[in-house]
Amino acid sequence: MKVFAVKELANLHIQNLKKSGNRIGLIPTMGALHQGHISLIERAKEENDVVVVSIFVNPTQFNNPEDLQKYPRTLEADLEKLSATDCDLVFAPQAEEMYQADETAELFDFAGLDKEMEGKFRDNHFNGVGTILKKLFSVLIPNNAYFGEKDFQQLQIVKKLVNITQQPVNIVGCPIHREADGLAMSSRNMRLTTEHRASAPFIYQTLLAAQKKVTNHTPKEIEQWVVEKFNKHNNLVLEYFSIADEATLKPIDNFNNSSKYRAFIAVFAGEIRLIDNLELSN
Ligand code: PAF
Fold first, then answer.
1. Alpha helices by DSSP H, the chain
2. CATH class for domain 2-174?
3. What are the extents of the domains in the chain?
């Protein structure tokens, strides 16, 4: 497994691999790798000749400096984990390699996808995600890039991004990986206290219960029911629950069979913000 920190060197190496006919699959990450990332690597290996993982905690996508500062950075452990997988190449640059000293996020027109849900609570977050992915795609020139559906809004926005930037990369969405008790895998889970970790599966349980209500309740009624469930919970705080169209991410007023919809949720477990979602239309 090769490890690069300099973009010109990584780019040259990948250009050569592509010249010899190799297809490149990229998994962009911010490190603190877990089984969810490993499953993306396995999927990428099935569909590509060379698997590349990038590890970079991207400052421009954090609207909260404390969250950026506390984000887990576990490069040594990540490299060890990756060496036991099908990963062929790691790109792990320092911030100065990716950004000029005073550089801020590029502004994209994501056609409103960035204004819903996460966008209401994390100002400029998706411009930061778009900025770093545009850079990573041009350095690592992947044929395919893999993203977990836990960040479903991000996935839709990344599809829009490559449409805007015209970068020739195919964006592949992959199912959410869950712990045995249903908690969606996330790098943030390792920061949960024992008490909050024990409570956190309530998020997925609530999504499943909401899914059961679709046949005889309106989206508004389900939303109110979820709000009440969390109001009664003693250590999880609901930030939002939204039932939205998968394509537009806009909240829906009624269930109609012609579109696909999903329930989206963000919850604070103490200081840790957790998100999850579940398809409702099947
Ligand atoms: O989902 C993430 O980990 C990040 O948003 C990403 C896609 C690696 C961009 O920094």
1. 7-19, 35-47, 65-70, 75-83, 95-98, 118-121, 125-140, 152-165, 194-199, 202-212, 219-231
2. alpha beta
3. 2-174, 187-276
Which tens digit of pLDDT belongs to each residue from 186-237? 999 999 999 999 999 999 999 999 999 999 999 999 999 999 999 999 999 9
Identify which of 232, 231, 262 has the alpha carbon closest to the alpha carbon of residue 249: 262
SS3 39: helix
State the catalytic residue, choosing from 13, 34, 37, 177. 37
Right CATH for 187-276 from 3.40.720.10, 2.40.10.10, 3.30.1300.10, 3.40.50.80: 3.30.1300.10
Ligand 1, atom 8, residue with closest C-alpha: 29
Listed in sequence order, the residues at least 6 apart from 162 whose beta carbon sits closer than 8 Å to its beta carbon are: 137, 169, 171
Whether 30 is in the pocket of ligand 1, judged by its Cβ within 6 Å, is yes
Fold equal for 2-174 and 187-276:
no
pLDDT tens, position by position, 32-91: 999 999 999 999 999 999 999 999 999 999 988 998 999 999 999 999 999 999 999 999
Choose among 80, 81, 73, 94: nearest CA to 36: 81
Distance 281 CA to ligand 1 centre (A): 27
Gap between the Cα atoms of 191 and 181, Å rounded: 17
Q: What are the structure tokens assigned to 5, written together?
A: 């920190």
- Pocket lining: 136 vs ligand 1, CB cutoff 6 Å: no
